[in-house]
Each structure stands twice: as structure tokens, then as C-alpha cells.
Amino acid sequence: MSGRLVILGYGNPSRGDDALGPLLLDRIADLAASGPGPDLITDFQLQVEHAADLEGAGLALFLDAGASCSPPWRLERLRAQQDVGYTTHALSPAAVLAVFRQVYGKEPPPAFLLTVAGESFELGAGLSKAAAAHLESAAGLMERLLAEPDAGYWQTLCA
Fold first, then answer.
1. The domain containing residue 19 runs over which residues?
2. Into how many domains does the chain fold?
3. Are the C-beta atoms of 65 and 21 separated by less than 8 Å?
4. End-to-end CA distance of the chain
5. For residues 75 and 115, what is the distance between their CA atoms, to the nearest angstrom?
6. Could you tell me which residues come within 8 angstroms of residue 107 by beta carbon, excluding any fewer than 6 positions away?
């Protein structure tokens, strides 16, 4: 991998399992604390400004919770694609990559989305038991991804 690894974890910690992205990012911070690690970015939602976080990156990983994800998690390769909307807020990861391409006039770094299965997204809810188990499984996957930050290897783990 040429360039740094950028990991963006997003979700609302006040909405139960929607906290999975930021919680997994916290786990990564613990795993990466022993040395120079990836750039870790957390937010409630993805916005156009996150395209700037990818400048100079050699690899990107987006972390999110998903109600329709098969347990425990799904890893997928992303392609730049514009969202079909009129707002510049709450973008999909693919739309962030499209903004990167538009702003910088070049292809974005190889990017992946790790979606962790969640089931309870109500305001004020805590993390569900199922989501806590899925978080543990995703943390195990993160150990493997961080040990080998290579798009080719990551592709072999995709669904």
C-alpha cells in the first residue's frame, strides 16, 4: 500500500446499534495504539468534507451499522458513485469517493465498507446483545485487516 490507511467510522451513538461504526473505531484505536497506525475519523454522518480526508491515502475503510446486513458483518469493495439526492449532507461512502474524484481530478484510493449488523436503532437505546456480539466478530476481522493493509488481500475477504 502506498500512502496511509484512513478509517472513517460513522453513526449516532444515541441511536442504539447505530453506534457500531464509532464503537468499532474505538476498538481500532486500542489495536493501533502500539505504533504508527491509521488515520481514524469519526462522525455522525458522512459529508462532502470527508473527501478531503482521503487525500494522500493509499487505502480507505468506512465503518457503519446496517439493519439489513446479514450477521455478523459484511465487507465490500466500494466504487465511486454519486448519490441520487439534492443534499451535500449524509452521503454514502461511494458518494464521498465520487466527490473525491470530482474535487481532485483523480481516482480515489481503493476503498471498502465494513457494515456491522445491527437490529435496534431507536433514540436512547443501548447496544443490543446481538450487535455487541457482531462488534466482537468485526473487531476480530479488524485485527486481520490492520495486520495486512492491502486492497488485494481485503478483496479476498469480501462477500
1. 4-156
2. 1
3. yes
4. 22
5. 6
6. 80, 101
